[in-house]
């Protein structure tokens, strides 16, 4: 069905990509944050990730392993990563901050320390969720004084 002035190029019956794939086979974007003030962020795409069997600790370890083994991530190896937090959910409101989401510190921060902790699906993570990985001390300092610097 098309309108003479505005052709419709989408299907209202088509499911959103965030819930079209099973929780056992999702794509996640992990945002490695090297520097908050200088906005040094590099994305890692994890495909075919299982949210029903993996914990936040598993995700943390999987990402750190990639950081240590992939040559393109060499500049990001000198950061002491210790925190993971959801940046955005697919098809939901986005933050205006380009580096980190300052909201939801309590409920969107993942427990990366507990190897037997909650499964990723219990954090309301689904296909195309973006998750930030960063140093918590740097985050607290930046949140207290969120001034961005330019090179």
Observed structural traits:
5-stranded mixed sheet; globular; Ubiquitin-like (UB roll); 151 residues; Altered inheritance rate of mitochondria protein 29; 4 helices; alpha+beta; UPF0538
Fold and architecture overview:
The chain has 151 residues and is α+β, with helices and mostly antiparallel strands. It has one domain: Phosphatidylinositol 3-kinase Catalytic Subunit, Chain A, domain 1 (Ubiquitin-like (UB roll)), CATH 3.10.20. It has 4 helices and 5 strands; from the N terminus they run αββαβαββα. It has a 5-stranded mixed beta sheet. A hairpin with a 4-residue loop joins strand 1 and strand 2. It is globular and about 45 Å long. It comes from Naumovozyma dairenensis (strain ATCC 10597 / BCRC 20456 / CBS 421 / NBRC 0211 / NRRL Y-12639) (Saccharomyces dairenensis). InterPro entries: UPF0538. Belongs to the UPF0538 family. This is Altered inheritance rate of mitochondria protein 29.
């Amino acid at each position: 069905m098309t309108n003479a002035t505005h052709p419709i190029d989408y299907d209202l019956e088509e499911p959103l990509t965030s819930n079209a794939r099973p929780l056992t086979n999702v794509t996640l974007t992990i945002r490695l944050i090297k520097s908050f003030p200088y906005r040094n962020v590099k994305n890692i795409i994890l495909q075919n990730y299982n949210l029903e069997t993996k914990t936040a600790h598993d995700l943390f370890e999987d990402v750190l392993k990639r950081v240590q083994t992939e040559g393109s991530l060499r500049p990001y190896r000198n950061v002491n990563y210790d925190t993971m937090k959801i940046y955005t959910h697919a098809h939901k409101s986005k933050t205006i901050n380009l580096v980190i989401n300052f909201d939801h510190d309590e409920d969107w921060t993942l427990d990366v320390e507990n190897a037997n902790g909650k499964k990723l699906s219990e954090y309301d993570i689904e296909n195309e969720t973006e998750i930030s990985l960063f140093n918590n001390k740097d985050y607290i300092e930046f949140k207290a004084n969120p001034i961005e610097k330019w090179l």
